[in-house]
Amino acid sequence: MYESADQAEPVYDAKGIETVRRDSIPAVSKILEKCFVGLFTSRDLSQTKLYVQNQLKKTLEGSAKLQDFIFSKEYRGEKGYKPTAKVPALLIARKRLAKDPWNEPLSGERVPYVIVCGAPGDPLYSLVREPQELLANPQLKLNTHYYINRVILPPLHRALSVLGVNVQSWFEELPKVYKIDGDDPSKSTKSTLSQYFRSAKCLVCESGCQANVCRKCLTAGSQATVVIMNSIVGRQLHLEHSMEQMCRTCAKVSTSGCVPCTSLDCPVQYKRSQLQKQRTLSTALCDKYLSRINNY
């Protein structure tokens, strides 16, 4: 929008469309706004397609910001719902009340929550978690396919279908980055759908494989493989300590105390949680493949 005759650059101003609505996640608003601005400035649909696919790929890989996937819905109070209602804000309020009778959200307060992966057949309301639960539990993962197919793609389709674009086909063109694990589910303790999947890349050489480390890295240069994996763990631990120091400085706590941070707007907190999960996985894999190498 141009507000004066001598204005060189236009200003994006949205009224009543999904880029300014609060009933979805921030990722939808950001992606839609970027698409609109890109189409108005470059008029190149191929660039918009590339941007959307990059954002969907980041979502699938888990490298997108967690803050952009947090719903925030208004809580209407315990009496504002039917007894059988399965509303996310109400479910979270009941969980809080079960732990602390004084921890009920205020009427009109927006309650943040995320949707995580669950066991096959689980209803959607059972997958609702508070963001703090997702950060504290390394077994929980964002339900990326739900976010893409049910939250992100529908508004994109409504906005871009007037141009004859099939946004669903853009998503289907993306390469599949996960493979089904070959372990026997009946002999494991896996309880969520995401735990049956693993990355289709070797952690050492990043080549395609059906396991976390390819057979070539296991057999040829096995000692180098362990050294590289230990180096990965060391770098992750160093980054984790650096971010922890940032949190201690921000919270003004001593080096021996914990960091009492509950801010949902702090990007460092989410990054620390991701690093902790990655380091735990890398350490376990390093020990696992070291024992396997010794048995070769």
Automatic annotation (TrEMBL):
Gene3D superfamilies: DNA polymerase family B, C-terminal domain
Reaction(s) catalysed (UniProt annotation): DNA(n) + a 2'-deoxyribonucleoside 5'-triphosphate = DNA(n+1) + diphosphate
Classification via Pfam families: DNA_pol_B, zf-C4pol
GO molecular function, one term: DNA binding
Alphabetical UniProt keywords: DNA-directed DNA polymerase, Nucleotidyltransferase, Transferase
Protein name: DNA-directed DNA polymerase
Entry superkingdom: Eukaryota
Coiled-coil regions, chain positions: none
PANTHER family listed in its UniProt record: DNA POLYMERASE ZETA CATALYTIC SUBUNIT (PTHR45812:SF1)
Record-annotated DNA-directed DNA polymerase family B multifunctional domain positions: 4-161
GO biological process: double-strand break repair via homologous recombination; error-prone translesion synthesis
Domain C4-type zinc-finger of DNA polymerase delta: 202-272
EC number(s) recorded for this UniProt protein: 2.7.7.7
GO CC terms in record: nucleus; zeta DNA polymerase complex
